[in-house]
Amino acid sequence: MTALIEASDLVRIYQIRRGLFGRPHPVRAVDEISLAVNPGETLGIVGESGSGKSTLGRMLLGIDTAQGGEVRFEGKPMPPLRTPEWRALRAKMQLIYQDPLAALDRRLTIAAQVGEPLEIHKIIPKQHQAARVAELMAAVGLRPDQAEHYPHELSGGQRQRAVIARALAARPKLLVCDEPVSALDVSIQAQVVNMLRDLQAENGIAMVFISHDLKVVRNIADRVAVMYLGRIVEEASSDVIFQSPQHPYTKALVSSVPVPGKRLEGRVILQGEPPNPASRPPGCAFHPRCPLARDICRALVPELRQIGDGRTAACHVVTGETAAIAA
Length: 327
Ligand code: SF4
Description:
alpha/beta; Rossmann fold; 8-stranded mixed beta sheet; 12 helices; 12 strands; globular; binds iron/sulfur cluster
C-alpha cells in the first residue's frame, strides 16, 4: 500500500538562549525521524513533554519547516509554505489543537466557523453550504440551535466538537490531532475519542494522534511511535506495544497504564529528571534514567532497527533475540 504521508530523516533545530545575554544554543527538537501513515490508519505518537511530538506534527503539515529530510504527501514532496499549492494541500490535512477556544474565533458563530472551509476551498456551491454545516454539526453531536452560538457559550467538549466539524468540512485525508482531549474532563474525553474514531472509519481518514496519555492512545491508535528527546525509540502495532513493550522507556510508560479490572502491578518508576531538550545526554539520551544502561549506552547513539513482530527499537541491549525471548 502506498503511504498517504511519509517523512524521511526529518530534522528541526531551534536556537535557544540560556538567560537574557546567553549565546544561542542549538536544540534538536526533532532528530532524524522517519515514519509513514497509510490511508485510513491511525498512528499514535506518545512521549513526555519536550519529546518533540508536537513539533513533529507541525512538520508533517509543513507549518514548521524541516531543516533536514523530507515530507511526501500522496507520493509528492510538500510544496513550500504559504504557496497556493501548499494551501490547496492543507485542505486535505487538518490540525486539531489541544485548546479549542484558541482554535475558534470568539467573534464568529459556530455555524460561520464550521462553514469557513467550505467557502475558502470552494468545496460545494454556496446555496448548499448551510445544509452541509447542519450535517457536519449533527455528525459531531452538536444541536441545531448551537449553530448561532458563540464559542464562549459552549462547553469545552462542545467546542472541540465544533473544531472537529470544521476540520471535516474540508474533506481531509489526514487529521493531525495534537493532544485533542487533554484539556477536557475525563468523562468527555472518551466521548470525543470515540466520536473521532467513528468519523475516521466512516470517512476513511488517516490520523496522527499525538498525546502524552497512553490510555487514550491505546483506544484509538493502530500503530504507536514512542518518542524520547526528539527521536523515535520504539514503533510497532498498538497491540504489540501495549502487550510486550521492549524498549526500557516504553516499558516504563506502558507499566503506568491502568487496565480495566486489573490492579496496577509491576509499575516501573523512572528515576532521574524528566528530559531537557537543551541538555541532551551523550550516547543514548535515555541512559541517565535507564535501569539497563551500560558503557556503550553512554558513548553511542543506538540506531532504530527492526527487531521482529513488525517492531523497530533503538536500544543497544534490546535486540531481535532479547525481544523474541521476552515474547
Ligand atoms: Fe537503556 Fe542502553 Fe537501551 Fe538506551 S541503549 S534504552 S540506555 S539499554
